[in-house]
Amino acid sequence: ELVNFNEFFNYILDRFDMLLAKDREKAEKAGTTVKRYTIKRIFTHKDLWVEIDPDKLTQAIDNIMNNAIKYSPDGGIITCRLVDTQNNLILSIADQGLGIPRKDIKKVFERFYRVDKARSRQQGGTGLGLSIAKEVIEAQGGHIWVNSAENRGSTFYISLPYDPQETGGEWDEAFE
Ligand code: ATP
Ligand code: MG
C-alpha cells in the first residue's frame, strides 16, 4: 500500500499522546500518579510516500515507542524525527532513558534478548518486540539500528526506501 509517511507517523504519535492523556486522567481520579513524558516531533515538510504494509509497520513503531516510554525517566522527552535523504526516509525515536550498554547493543534485536535480566523483569515484556520490528522492517526493504549512551539515552532509527515519483522534488521538476 502506498502511504504518506508523514501522516502515518503523525497518526501513530497522536495515539500515544491520547493514551498518555487518558492514563493521566485515570490516575488523577484514583489519586495516584503515572510517569509523564513529552513527545516532540521534528518532521520534514516534504511529503514522503512509501510502499509499506501499514499494519505491520505500526506494530514495529509501537514497540519502539513503548520501549522508549518504558525506559524513560519521569518527565522525559521523546524526540521523534522524520528526515529524507536522496533515496530513503529516516525516522528516529530518541529517549533520555538509561541507555543500552555497548556490549549489548548488537544483541537487542535478537529474539528473547533483554539487557540485565533483573532490570528488565521488573519492566515486564518478553524480549521479542525488537526482533519482530527488525523482521518487519527488513521485509519491507528497510533497516533498523540503534545508537545509545549509557545513562544518557537511546535513539532507534528506521530507514525505508521512498518512492521519488510520488514524493516529487527534483525528479518531478525535471519533467515539468
Ligand atoms: P517486549 O517488547 O517483547 O514486550 P522487551 O521490551 O523487553 O519486551 P524488546 O523490545 O525486544 O523487548 O527489547 C529488548 C531489550 O532491549 C529490552 O529488554 C531492553 O533491555 C533493551 N531496550 C530496548 N529499548 C530500549 C530503550 N529505549 N532504552 C533502554 N533499553 C532498551
Ligand atoms: Mg519492547
Describe this structure in words.
The structure is a single chain. Helix 2 packs antiparallel against helix 4. The mean pLDDT is 91. This protein has helices at residues 5-30, 54-70, 117-123, 129-139, 164-167, 170-173, and strands spanning 2-4, 37-43, 49-51, 76-84, 88-94, 143-149, 153-161. It starts with a strand and ends with a helix. The strands form 2 sheets. A 5-stranded mixed β-sheet has the order 2-4-5-7-6. The protein has a two-stranded antiparallel sheet with strand order 1-3. By secondary structure, the protein is an alpha+beta fold. It binds adenosine-5'-triphosphate and magnesium ion. Adenosine-5'-triphosphate is lined by residues 63, 67-68, 71, 95, 97-100, 108, 113-115, 120, 125-131, 154. It is found in: Cell membrane. This is histidine kinase. Residues 1-164 form the Histidine kinase domain.
Q: Round the Cα radius of gyration to an integer and report it.
A: 17 Å
Task: Name the poorly predicted regions.
Answer: none
Q: What percent of residues adopt helix (DSSP H or I)?
A: 25-40%
Read across the widest sheet, the strand sequence of neighbours is: 2-4-5-7-6
Main structural class? alpha+beta
Average pLDDT number: 91
Q: Count the strands?
A: 7
Give the strand content: 25-35%
Oligomer: single chain
- What is the CA-CA span between the terminal residues? 26 Å
Shape call: globular
- What ligands are attached or bound here? adenosine-5'-triphosphate, magnesium ion
Helical region count?
6
The major pleated sheet works out as: 5 strands, mixed
Secondary-structure element order, as H and E?
EHEEHEEHHEEHH
